[in-house]
Amino acid sequence: MKIENRQLKEFIEDSKMIAPKDLETAYEEAESKNKQLGEILLARKLIEKIKLRKLYAYILGIPFVDISKIIISPDILQIVPEPIAKKYKIVAFEKNQRELKVAMLDPEDIQTIDFIRKKTGLKIISCLTTEESIKAALKLYGKSLKAEFGDIINKSASEISKKKEEDEKDKDLEKIAQDLPVIRIVDTLIKHAILQDASDIHIEPSEKEVRVRYRIDGILHEAMTLPKQVKEGIIARIKVLSNLKLDEHRIPQDGRFKIEKEGLKISFRVSILPVFDGEKIVMRLLNESSKGLTLEMMGLMGESLEIIHNAIKRPNGMILVTGPTGSGKTTTLYTIMDILNTPEVNISPVEDPIDDRKS
Known about the structure:
Blueprint: H1 5-15, H2 20-32, H3 37-43, H4 49-60, H5 74-77, H6 82-88, E1 90-95, E2 99-104, H7 110-120, E3 123-128, H8 131-166, H9 173-177, H10 180-195, E4 200-205, E5 209-216, E6 219-227, H11 231-241, E7 253-261, E8 264-275, E9 278-287, H12 302-312, H13 329-340
Parallel strand pairs: 2-3
Antiparallel strand pairs: 1-2, 4-5, 4-9, 5-6, 7-8, 8-9
């Protein structure tokens, strides 16, 4: 975000917030050093940060908000995934059926605003805020999985440990998979992954603990660690959900399952791989509720969009889609396939493994 020095100077002159002589000196310094006038005013202690940001908002014609003084609902906060919020300094704080209000440091960051608009399908109302306000709001994310669901997970893990001590000989994996504490832990991990808009869940056992990580926006992020006592139960539960062999621990297994909750339909592609300390689980999440995307909704426009449309109209050839894990390669190909899927066309996809069952 850049405010022209002369423009800021004129607004301050009109408001009479700073003595004319001090303002002129600061302006001359900013111009000679090729710096922003606001930066010089702050350095000279001629204006408070919050007053300067309010002035910026007035000049830009957008609302100013101090989100550190607002109680933000966790459901609204989670609309913008934590990695996106931290990277682009943007926080969702208010929502209705048509609009989502976000506080940010750079309201001219059109790319980020457009990303959230496409993700939510809502009109985005950008509000300017202070860096301190954003930092305070980002601490709410710090609670993350451990704080939001810590009591549930810790209580469940404790119950599993106690049960294991009482009946160490009980090795019925199917029974373990149906234990309420195990079900609560797995349901909680999945729920939080969906809230965080994760594309993958990684559950990795080690000698002393079980590490849970989410892939968000193509990057793996630590979610939390669980006590090693829950390892067998989590693996058994996910195997039951995926219709995999409970007593097979030496070879990799692949499966899938689907959940429907609160209007969402999420399918999971599950891969289980033997490792030194047990079995490692990777679950790929596919939101089937988000079907019906267009190339425009995915951010393609102008020449790039025209190139793709011309390519898919050709009678033969190949389109190569590349990118890191979770970047949207499969979604792009499925979107193209939806465009081509007309009554007079027969499509035979070749996939291994199959990501989605098209109807």
